[in-house]
């Protein structure tokens, strides 16, 4: 079943986070991920607001988790650590 990778991000270091973004996109694509929302308009109805919200669709929860744990994504993530505050979750869809 497909899954959504949902990230809520506050960027604290634009330069370092830019390096993350350059590497993360190809790593996500390599694992079958496809961005369906990236930094667009949003309305926060509850909880902590983060100015950047990203949603990617993956073929499965396992594919999304494998992507996260992959050497390519972990290399990208090294640039995001210390350059952002993030929450990331993977949610299985019903379709």
From TrEMBL:
Cross-referenced InterPro entries: Dimeric_a/b-barrel, DUF1330
DUF1330 domain ranges (all copies): 2-93
Annotated protein name in UniProt: DUF1330 domain-containing protein
Organism: Tritonibacter horizontis
């Amino acid at each position: 079943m497909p899954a959504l990778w949902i990230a809520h991000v506050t960027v604290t270091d634009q330069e370092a986070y830019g390096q993350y973004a350059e590497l993360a996109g190809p790593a996500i694509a390599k694992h079958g991920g496809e961005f369906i929302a990236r930094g667009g308009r949003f309305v926060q109805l509850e909880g902590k607001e983060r100015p950047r919200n990203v949603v990617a669709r993956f073929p499965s929860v396992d594919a999304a988790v494998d992507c996260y744990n992959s050497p390519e994504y972990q290399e990208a993530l090294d640039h995001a650590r210390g350059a952002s505050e993030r929450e990331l979750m993977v949610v299985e869809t019903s379709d």
